[in-house]
Amino acid sequence: MSENTAPLNPRPEVSAASPWTFPDSHHEQLESGLRVVRVPIPGQQVVTVELGIDVPLSAEDPAHLGVANLVLTTSDEGTRHHPGAELAEAIESIGASYDGACGLTSSSVSIDVPRGHLDPALDLLAEIVTSSALADEDVLRQMAQARSQLAQAAQNGPSLAGLAVSREVWPLGHRASRPTAGTASTLDAITTADVRDFRDATWLPAGGVLVLAGADVDGVDLGAFSQWTGAREDAAEEVRSDPIRADGPTRVLLVDRPDAVQADVRIQTRVPGRQDSRWAALRVACGVLGGTFGSRLNTVLREEKGWSYGVSAAARAMRDGGLVTVGGAFRAEVAAQAVRAALDLVDPGSPSLEDAEVRDARNHAVGVAPLQYDTAGAVASQVTTLEMAGLTGAWVDHLMADTAAVTTDLANQAWRELLPASTWRVGIAGPAGTLGPALEESGFMVEVISPSELLD
């Protein structure tokens, strides 16, 4: 195009972005005790229906760890009305997809579907929840799959490091310190009848929440869930996240991978969660420490030292309390130095957070929110999580306002008060022969274990 050729269309005018808010929601409750939250999102023609069920992993018998995950993974293998492959065909015929997850504090299942097929999708979701067959052959197949996943985890450095630090952060024997899908020995102890019994005793509406997010969800009939009744009889173990207090050297649980050329590292501590007035400031502080590419951890350990492709730090809220996790992978020969350097960087005794750092982390935390919640699935997942924690979707707007108001002083205060050096615990997966002595020379208290000790 020549310099004098006019554009075919005038250039659009760029205006200032409008303020973003989390979608409004409408609440109701069914006679069964199931809460319903409708989140209208005009124009969003793929609707997500997510069901949060009050089934924390702590509801499992300690001898049957993994039974909750088996119920979930087998739930869409067939129902009494749609046995076997007929259920998958019914889901596919309306362009829907089914998914779910078992969490430390609750379980969830969801279905994504085009708005025009929402009614049959609700029928299928209710059918799965209330009458999944959990046939012997399907349960046994999922058991075999779970064992295969454990075998894969035994060869996966990040997974082993995550399990190792969980073993250190949580009390001995606490459900949070064990793999979500169970261990080899607990899976061997589970029968197909145990799986069905667990479903019957726990997949119940009372204490749960059904979230519908997408276009025109206000008038949707929920009659498919009208016959679902019942409440759990037992109380689940409370998942506490009180900060760790300890003196002496920092503990490291080292999972031996003799042939590994890198060390996968997870550094973690428990902190107060959403209900704490310092939560927004803590998130900003974590953003400065490791939440962006230009964070302190990444700048020093990746850019200056060249020890890693990337290091991060993030605060994650739980139903009660929260976790702060530093993660990265390092060349094995420098891993001990890297862990010491990482702990020094997140130690509140290091140089205070500066105004420019806090401003950038604060703006990033607020600015990414519209991208985090740009789908019905993301909105439904967040609402489900909040509702199960006794909050509503409006909490997101409060968090954004609190985050925008975080000052440098508030960020430094949260860092000093909530992340003292004595509370951090370390899990590493790597070659113990070289890492163990190097870590001890760096002042750590090291315990070496094999992958099987975490997974068997």
UniProtKB/TrEMBL annotation:
Q: Where is the segment annotated Disordered?
A: 1-23
Q: Name one GO molecular function term.
A: metal ion binding
Outline the extent of the Peptidase M16 N-terminal domain. Answer: 37-160
Pfam families named among the record's database cross-references: Peptidase_M16 (PF00675), Peptidase_M16_C (PF05193)
- Which InterPro entries does its entry note? Metalloenz_LuxS/M16, MPP/UQCRC_Complex, Pept_M16_N, Peptidase_M16_C
> Which top-level group of life is the source organism from?
Bacteria
Residue ranges of the Peptidase M16 C-terminal domain? 190-344
What is the recorded name of this protein? Peptidase M16 inactive domain
Organism of this sequence: Acidipropionibacterium jensenii
Q: What is the lineage of its organism?
A: Bacteria, Bacillati, Actinomycetota, Actinomycetes, Propionibacteriales
